[in-house]
Amino acid sequence: xxxxxxxxxxxxxxxxxxxxxxxxxxxxxIEQAGRWRDAIVAWRSVIDGGDAGQGVLGLERVFSQLxxxxxxxxxIDTLIPRQPDNRILRGVQLRTLRALGREQSVREAFAAWVxxxxxxxxxxxxxxxxxxxxxxxxxxxxxxxGGVAALGGSKPLLVELAQLxxxxxxxxxxxxxxxxxxxxxxxxxxxxxxxxYNVPSASRDSVRAALLGTMQAPADAATRKVHGQLELQWxxxxxxxxxxSTLTIADSAYDTWSDFAAEAERQQAWLVARDALIRxxxxxxxxxxxxxxxxxxxxxxEPSSALTxxxxxxxxxxxxxxxxxxxxxxxxxxxxxxxxxDAEALVAREGGQADAxxxxxxxxxxxxxWVRAGEVEKAKAALAGASGDDDEEVSGWIALxxxxxTRARAGLRRPADATPDVVTAMAxxxxxxxxxxxxxxxxxxxxxxxxxxxxxxxxxRAADELGDAAxxxxxxxxxxxxxxxxxxxxxxxxxxxxxSYPISPEAAESDLEWARTLRRKGDLAGATExxxxxxxxxxxxxxxxxxxxxxxxxxxxxx
Length: 559
What we know:
CATH topology of the domain at 1-117: Serine Threonine Protein Phosphatase 5, Tetratricopeptide repeat
Oligomer: single chain
CATH class of the domain at 1-117: Mainly Alpha
Largest sheet: none
Radius of gyration: 33 Å
Number of strands: 0
Strand content: under 5%
Number of helices: 33
Low-confidence stretches: 1-19
CATH superfamily of the domain at 1-117: Tetratricopeptide repeat domain
Distance between the termini: 56 Å
Helix content: over 70%
Shape: elongated
């Protein structure tokens, strides 16, 4: 309650009589010092000086500290007959009577306020919001409906009606009302966002429907701002950015884009953060934004776009910034693309002035680039240039390529990025107890070099080498054959997994992918058989709900 009182207090100057700044300042200082008795005298002096609103708010806080809330009523009963339309006095009266549990007096005070200012929305707004904050939604609804009838319409009370619907858990209806609020008052977007921040998952579609609007009545800019930021908070950053990207600078969108980008970076939704930062840079070019966009692009797995951004940054900034910030990002982007030779040449050309620590970081990054290209010997040579400051992850990949699974486990314990290749390698290392796996290592090496056919063949052979991880390795092989559209080979391996390793996690996954492939090829009967087999044979699999949905779609004839 104290926070609400303070909020009203700071707004009081426009609602009450002209304050005496020196008297108010003195009263605040005394109150903050905890001199409660002296503060009472000071706030009464403020009232005597002509500012009843701020004076009563001060007395409300002080008497609350002393546990003497009823003493506020004495002052209010004296002041209200002199200023019957003073919203601050009336609000404090309702709030204090509610705190004292005097419900009949609260209703009488509300009725007296309505009678004193016929046709004024203030009594309904104040009382309803106090009730909503107390979660007394039924009474709040009654008050608001009375206000709608008395005022001849709901428009003056839309904010309170929206808050009430949200408090009642009627999220879709609340969102529709908030949309109406923002259509008239766009600056209410932050209040709407805060109100709908905690929409439960089951109710989000109703909120989306309300905020999206229709072809005939599309959402306005304020509504799109709220909807986009909600989608980000709900874990749908790409959809959030799709909505916000339709805004223009004329919609005062820059700050919205900035907030969205910062939150997307915090959530590590890197690619949508990049897109938002690029749009910001178009509107207001800045090197700092370009560098953030490039960083997000590399972190999001699209280093080629980072290089495009950094090429622009080079033309807009000084040499020192290029050396200290642009060059490291370019090296990182090039090595993530497997272009270690280009990164090596760039460092040789421009990195000569870097300190020893930065030189070692460049060497490790270039080694990592050679690892991504599957060039083991060149990776070793680059890593040797790191002045003995070995990089565990790079060494771990080299060990994996060479089939040394023990050293690979040690080096890949804490990978920097959870890329698909890293997840695949970690899954194998966690699944097998084998110390060596030269065929498996050769498969990963072929994969790094982009030779997926050789990688698939070697993963299939590695199943005989590492029996305790056989279904996992076969699953890798089948996935690669499927990506190459070699469906016959993929189906053969899926059949082997389902029949030979029926209790493995890969068995249900194989059945699902087998069914999807048959459906894609037009073999609907075969696809149906595989979906049914998965559901009946692996009832505890997490894939069963997905199989059921796809089977129902198949049976209904929906594409």
